[in-house]
Amino acid sequence: EQDEILALLSRIEGKGKGILQHHQVIAEFEEIPEESRQKLTDGAFGEVLRSTQEAIVLPPWVALAVRPRPGVWEYLRVNVHALVVEVLQPAEYLHFKEELVDGSSNGNFVLELDFEPFTASFPRPTLNKSIGNGVQFLNRHLSAKLFHDEESLHPLLEFLRLHSVMERH
User: Can you give the residue ranges of the Sucrose synthase N-terminal domain (predicted)?
Assistant: First the structure.
């Protein structure tokens, strides 16, 4: 299976520097011989290939963003020439992706913004059925929070008083 993986990744790397979306990766997969395709489909790499959302090509490296299930992302990159595989952290993957545009930062300072403090109190969906249903999830969360007890209604009452809602009707 290793030869087939190498053949596919070499095809992808041969495309040159850039980003390939899932359908483009699959199109490259479909261009390899049927026998090789079958070996890859039946092996463990077949699952990786089906879950790959994008490929970043920066020769000799090919990085893959793999989403094995909703809400779970894994990142890896392969040096096609040296046959080296590395697992990447999300920040490393994003840095690798940025190199497509900016080139290597060579240790120069790069502006980074941390938005985590703004999302610390924001609810996160934990059930698979909530992923992709963000508005419904937020409505349920806010309704539960708003009508939890009498104290929870005070901010709403103050908002309505401030905007004189009762005086208009």
Answer: 2-98
